[in-house]
Amino acid sequence: MTQKSKSLTSLALQKFKKNFWGVLSFWYIVLIGFIAIFAYVIAPDDTSNANQMHLSIHSKKPGFEVTMLKIPLEQELSSSFFSDLLFGKKSAYSETPITSYSFANDTLQIVEYASDGLDGIKKSIPFSKFSNASSSEEIEAAFISKQRFLLGTDKYGRDLLSRMFIGARISFFIGFIAVFISLIIGITMGSLAGYFGGKVDTAIMFIINVAWSIPTLLLVIAITLAIGKGFWQVFIAVGLTMWVEVARVVRGQIMSAKQLQYVTAARALGYTDFRIISRHILPNVMAPVIVIAAANFAGAILIESGLSFLGIGAQPPTPSWGGMIKDHYNYIILGKPYLAVIPGLAIMSLVMAFMLIGNALRDALDVKA
């Protein structure tokens, strides 16, 4: 008869599984992660940055549908699966929203879409523009189709759903990269300060207090301006500002743990300081660090959103949820608030998920409970 494992890890996992909101948040984060990784696979607009602009259909409501004409471009496109997965495809078509069309004398007669009751421009396009299509039936089947925008279009006529999917990459991955950087720096600095004490502790605490006294957003702006604007620069800047809290917690935990008997035994056996810290102390003090890391995920997402709103984050045409709010916050008073509310709700839900999973981890890892 086998006995169930009673290790602290298995007990914590069992407690976590009983937390409804923690489990729900975990699967929501997994879903957002899947969308972020495979954004270009599932997005309706799989071109790079979902940047297909159609100014004639700008700011349309969710569920808007229009007839779209695709005219092949003459340039040759070559790409790989991984390139398309990471960066999207290069546009192979010139897209034009149309109101109506007809065929006459080997030409396609179209009326371009125009909003607000205006008459669209009429154009004639010869069949020769459509490669591998010589009849009206082939052109109609291959190059004319109904296109529905489930979340509507932004102020440039781009598919808002596709931009949301690709923008999830910024908000999601900044959490991982920023928290990874903060953990590396914070654990290292906190371990040195807590274990060695004395002058080492004094010097590191001075650095921690100086970094702690500077407003986070101001420090991120300064670092961003120093190393430049862009995708990776924001990730690094946010990570370099979030290590302080990790360092303080690790320092306090190690100061308590180094007085325990197993550390004294490790020293008596002649183990090096590095081995004692990395193999014996840190594994026993990581529970609060894990909780802080979950909270820092949420903090990193909010900081990046704020930077993008200020125009310092990811630069256009790269989509980000904060940048989408910046582009459309004026529409809140113009009768189209969904253009700013949708990315705002996405940020709120992801931040809440990380906070809830952090609370669930805190309860699961509480040895006194």
Automatic annotation (TrEMBL):
Its main location: membrane. It is a multi-pass membrane protein. The keyword Transferase does not apply. InterPro entries: BP-dependent_transpt_permease, MetI-like, MetI-like_sf, OppC_N. The chain crosses the membrane at residues 20-43, 170-196, 203-225, 231-250, 285-303, 338-361. Residues 168-358 form the ABC transmembrane type-1 domain. Keywords: Cell membrane, Membrane, Transmembrane, Transmembrane helix, Transport. Pfam families: BPD_transp_1 (PF00528), OppC_N (PF12911). CDD domains: TM_PBP2. GO terms for biological process: transmembrane transport. Belongs to the binding-protein-dependent transport system permease family. This is ABC transporter permease subunit. It comes from Spongiivirga citrea.
